[in-house]
Write a structure and sequence with these properties.
Blueprint: E1 2-7, H1 17-24, H2 30-39, E2 42-44, E3 47-48, E4 60-65, E5 82-85, E6 89-94, H3 111-118, E7 139-145, H4 148-160, E8 164-172, E9 179-182, E10 185-187, E11 195-197, E12 204-212, E13 216-223, H5 230-237, H6 260-268, E14 274-282, E15 289-293, H7 298-312, H8 320-325, E16 330-334, E17 340-345, E18 358-363
Length: 365
């Protein structure tokens, strides 16, 4: 156990003791200082002190710094997809399905357990250095602190909003243009496991259209705040829930003319199609701006390819009158891609109106 001793400078006269000590101990949070005062690890003039007592100035402070270990959590050999690591921070690409922190129903098999196995230094930090989270079924980039000073620095950056995060989401519905959703997000009064808009803490999400498909849209979402389930709740509120979201989504919406492969992919996509693709922070040690980008996982890539394929398919059925006439006809079709097609139908059309043989002549649209 480390022992630290010092005198409180006179300029803190009249300030609450816990606030003064938190300002002096820059590598510790005010909550940590308060806990140490309550547990008797801090003595002022050789006496236990209250967190609320006022500082006079010149008091002698002695702190027996406890070695905090996460004894209730055990290290587990879970592979980590490391994007970056140095002596201050670690950036990991979290797969969908991996819980970040142990909780009710997830006592093990989490990112925290993996971090404890990766390095012993994480056992000395609150929450093993985890300073923000991604939902279980959201994939992508997440930064973890490796030292207490880095942890406090990252927490301050989140509060000051100097950390930049961007997500990719496949949503149900066709969004015409980007926009901003500024709606408070708080715990639902009906179901405490879910979040809702209209009350709670301020939350702001900016979104931009990346690609539009027949019945879905790929959007990029930039966060100003980081409330629980913020993107999922905001997009649901806007009328465009995240595809596959079992808590805030809706029934599967099949695009017109969807292939069997696309239908199967949409029905079987059982997690929210949400990925944290971009992360930017000020490095806690050097204050240098650092950036990381992570491409979409394979399940989202495959779904995007199928949605694109469906968008490019040409769907047209000859009217019954044309089937009876047996004559050449032309039909001009302009599709969402902006290209114009002319369909020339062969006269070899049976009276049963079986699908005719036809030629496609592409004109510059």
């Amino acid at each position: 156990m480390e022992n630290r001793q010092f005198l409180i400078p006179p300029e803190f006269r009249g300030v609450r003791l816990d606030k003064a000590l938190a300002s002096i101990l820059t590598d510790r949070s005010r909550t940590t200082v308060q806990n140490w005062l309550d547990e008797g690890f801090i003595l002022v003039n050789d006496l236990r002190a209250s967190r609320r007592q006022a500082v006079v100035g010149g008091e002698h402070v002695s702190i027996d710094v406890p070695e905090k270990k996460n004894l209730e959590w055990k290290p587990e050999n879970i592979p980590l997809d490391l994007v970056h690591e140095d002596d201050q921070i670690l950036v990991v690409n979290k797969p969908a399905g991996l819980v970040v922190h142990p909780g009710a129903g997830n006592a093990s098999g989490t990112l925290l357990n993996a971090l404890l196995h990766h390095s012993d230094e994480f056992a000395l930090l609150p929450r093993a250095g985890i300073v923000h989270r991604l939902d279980k079924n959201t994939s992508g980039l997440l930064v973890v602190a490796k030292t207490e000073s880095a942890r406090l620095n990252l927490i301050r950056q989140f509060r000051k909003r100097t950390i930049s995060r961007q997500y990719l989401a496949i949503v149900v519905g066709r969004i015409i243009s980007g926009g901003t959703i500024s709606e408070a997000v708080g715990r639902s009064r009906r179901d405490r496991r879910k979040m809702t808009v209209g009350h709670g803490k301020p939350a702001v999400s900016h979104y931009r259209v990346v690609s539009r498909y027949r019945a879905h849209t790929l959007v990029r979402v930039m966060l100003e705040t980081g409330r629980t389930h913020q993107i999922r709740v905001h997009l649901q509120h806007a009328g465009f829930p995240v595809l596959g979201d079992l808590e805030y989504g809706q029934r599967v919406k099949l695009p017109k003319g969807a292939s069997r492969e696309l239908i199967s992919a949409l029905v079987e996509f059982r997690r929210q199609a949400l990925h944290a693709e971009y992360l930017s922070i000020l490095h806690p040690g050097t204050a240098e701006r650092m950036h990381w980008h992570q491409f979409m996982p394979e399940d989202m890539k495959r779904l995007i390819l199928l949605l694109k394929s469906n968008l490019n398919q040409i769907q047209w059925t000859a009217p019954a009158a044309i089937c009876r006439s047996g004559r050449h006809i032309q039909k001009k079709l302009t599709y969402e891609t902006g290209r114009t097609y002319w369909i020339v139908v062969s006269p070899r059309i049976s009276q049963s109106c079986m699908p005719p043989r036809y030629h496609l002549i592409l004109w510059d649209g």
